[in-house]
Amino acid sequence: xxxxxxxxxxxxxxxxPWPSVxxxxxxxxxxxxxxxxxxxxxxxxxxxxxxxxxxxxxxxxVYVTLEPCAHHGTTPPCADALVRAGVARVVCACDDPNPLxxxxxxxxxxxxxxxxxxxxxxxxxxRAHEGFLKVQTQGLPFVTLKLALSVDGRIATAxxxxxxxxxxxxxxxxxxxxxxxxxxxxxxGTARADDPSLDVRxxxxxxxxxxVVASRGLDLPRDSKLMRMAGRLPVWLMHGAGADPAPWTAAxxxxxxxxxxxxxxxxxxxxxxxxxxxxxxxxCEGGGQLAASILRAGLVDELAVFTGGVAxxxxxxxxxxxxxxxxxxDAPRFTLCESHRIGNDMLQVWRPV
Length: 353
Description:
Distance between the termini: 28 Å
Structural class: alpha/beta
Radius of gyration: 22 Å
Strand content: 15-25%
Largest sheet: 9 strands, mixed
Order of helices and strands: HEEHEHEHEHHEEHEHEHEHEEEHEHEEEE
């Protein structure tokens, strides 16, 4: 199962709106098939592994990270494929809460006389599929908020200079994180100040990251990198009622109107619309106002904080916008899960308490 989970993680960020499932088929102590959800052919991991195993799948044990599907979607049900292949045993890490599956996959297997075991490495399985599971159960994507801060918590000088607070090793890790998410999200201020491309570089990957900009008024430069790449690569604009999306749609971008609150776009509605469009994992790279709005709403699932060895002082720009806190007891709190030195920088990964 550990191998199946490892295989499944390779597809994170590449197969949305479907989960990235890993599958390993074992017969007589030998691996005869392995697979991960295929974004090109749309085959599910079980089918990829069965195709590799061929006749050796008969009587074998199948280790799969998510309950095999039981409905006709882009492909026929995986549970039926496992039955036809004549496997003897199926071991699953995680149940599928999708109402079209939700125990039906297990029932098909058991009705065919196949032994089914569930909950094997369940915690790791839930973590591997947390984006898909959150969309299914809450209608929201999994959100990682990334901050790159000076030692005194600043993201830029008073004049807005921010390149680079962290070193090349840390930036390479950030590109790896982008690759494991379906979409990279920034606010309009960051789009105007940095003119980012939000791509994945230096890893030898071909990755069509969905670039998402949250800008209530769509007051974004028309000569930006994002405007020039719209139509060739996925660029999505989240905007309010008063914006004019026509120039962006003409350039090939996708525009989604969101509800608004007192401080801008409603972050819950914004994320809900991304989930409705198929996005399961979002990597939010700020800036400070957008990060604060998502934190205030309690929508951050993971906080990745890179700290560089530089001090910018009180006049530097804060890493977070106002949270409107009067009491320390009301502050969002997180538990430290990981801490790594990366080059001359530090990465800390936190999860909500």
